[in-house]
Design a protein that fits this description.
Number of helices: 8
Order of helices and strands: HEEEHEHEHEHHEHEH
Strand order of the largest sheet: 1-2-4-3-5-6-7-8
Helix content: 25-40%
Radius of gyration: 19 Å
Shape: globular
Distance between the termini: 53 Å
Largest sheet: 8 strands, mixed
Structural class: alpha/beta
Number of strands: 8
Strand content: 15-25%
Oligomer: single chain
Amino acid sequence: MRNLKSFALLVVLLAVSVSAMAQRSFDVNLWAAKAPNKNGLQDTAYIKVFLPDAKRATGRAVVICPGGGYALLAMEHEGTQWAPFFNNMGIAAIVLHYRMPNGNVKVPISDAEEAMRIVRRNAKNWHINASNVGIMGFSAGGHLASTIATQSKADAKPNFQILFYPVITMMQGYTHQGSHDNLLGKDAHKKDEQKYCSDLQVTRLTPRACLLLSDDDHAVMPINSVNYYAELYRHDVPSSIYVYPTGGHGWGMNTSFAFHAEMLTNLKGWLESF
């Protein structure tokens, strides 16, 4: 009888725990009316908000841009699966489901900028410090995040950036061709390619950065991150770069990544350094 009561109590506690977690997670549509810019698709833009317990909240938040070559979104291992990591550090995690460009570069950029603005507009209610909102991106999502970090202004500009194996350049021979073609089109003008090379847009006002990638990444060449880090260093922007010996591309939060634990330790240490 005692075991039965204990089991029943455990079930209740688990239910309460799950319910409490659910109350801290919710979706917000980016655009109340018609979304700006057209891509000829029927996709939608929204954010999935994961808030830490108010008592543990540090005021920091990060908007997460999953990758997918500007053709799809890896919403789990490059998105929602990161929420517990950040929430356990008292950091709000906001996963962005952005629209695909389909050749219109303004589409995902406008979505990412609006996500940043929404977080700041709701800063008080979400226990967030509007001056401590960063952006994080993976692969093509890393290109989007670095674009926001180097080109966006005012309420859309992040305070820090975290980039995993990011696409940085749009120049032929070094870019990820699929991301390039989906973002700018196969026949993109060179001036547009240069405009969306994030390494060419770095200034002394670019927010601090953390870059994480594998040396054997054959999908997005590591030179993308190396050149970006070099420009950040040249412009006196505080930055760190972690290059793991193996792992390839696209590991995100996958525990199968050989350096998963080390990567989390590196990122946690960097986040605690400022």
